[in-house]
């Protein structure tokens, strides 16, 4: 893939979560927490160089590698989808920071870069769908079944 096919702009999302950073951080590194908001099943080696595999909805499986883990401030990992050449496993980068904004709240900032233009809209809508689910799960509220998941 040539560089000119990549979107020049990363996907950037921010969300306030009513939980402290150390708790919210775990929702990106603990497979039991991941399945509460973003996956049907998850396998993770949450360490630098560790791999992960997430069955998001029964159709789409994300795979990548942890690049940096700095609890509870930041996690960086490669990201991509099994079975696709558009955004194959490990071909993009997700950086998430967790800022303590007081009152037991965390500002979660997600920056997803290195995405081909043709995959940008789908990945952006995915984060828009799943981050509100994170917000509920991290503060202990019921998330409910994922409408995107298949039985």
Give a verbal description of the structure.
There is one protein chain. This protein is of the alpha+beta class and 151 residues long. The protein has one domain (3-138): START domain (Alpha-D-Glucose-1,6-Bisphosphate, Chain A, domain 4), CATH 3.30.530. It contains 3 helices and 7 strands, in the order βααββββββα. The chain has helices at 21-26, 31-37, 117-138, and strands at 11-17, 41-44, 51-55, 61-70, 74-79, 92-102, 105-113. 27% of the residues are buried.
Main attributes of the structure:
151 residues, alpha+beta, Alpha-D-Glucose-1,6-Bisphosphate, Chain A, domain 4, seven-stranded antiparallel β-sheet, 7 strands, globular
Order of helices and strands: EHHEEEEEEH
Return Rg in Å.
Answer: 15 Å
Overall domain count: 1
The amount of beta strand, in percent, is 25-35%
Describe the biggest sheet?
A: 7 strands, antiparallel
Outline = globular
- State the helicity in percent bands: 10-25%
Look at the structure and give the mean pLDDT.
95
**Reported CATH architecture:** 2-Layer Sandwich
Distance between the first and last residues' Cα: 35 Å
Strand order of the largest sheet: 1-7-6-5-4-3-2
CATH superfamily caption: START domain
Broad CATH class: Alpha Beta
Detail the poorly predicted runs: none
Structural class: alpha+beta
- DSSP strand tally: 7
Number of helices: 3
């Amino acid at each position: 893939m040539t560089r000119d096919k990549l979107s020049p702009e990363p996907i950037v999302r921010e969300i306030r979560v009513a939980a402290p950073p150390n708790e919210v951080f775990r929702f990106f590194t603990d497979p039991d927490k991941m399945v509460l908001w973003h996956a049907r099943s998850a396998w993770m080696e949450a360490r630098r160089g560790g791999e992960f595999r997430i069955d998001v909805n029964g159709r789409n499986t994300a795979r990548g590698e942890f690049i940096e883990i700095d609890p509870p401030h930041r996690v960086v990992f490669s990201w991509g989808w099994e079975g696709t050449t558009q955004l194959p496993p490990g071909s993009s980068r997700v950086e998430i920071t967790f800022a303590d904004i007081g009152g037991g709240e965390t500002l979660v900032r997600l920056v997803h870069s290195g995405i081909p233009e043709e995959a940008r809209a789908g990945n952006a809508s995915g984060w828009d769908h799943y981050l509100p689910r994170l917000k509920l799960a991290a503060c202990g509220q019921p998330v409910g079944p994922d409408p995107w998941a298949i039985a």
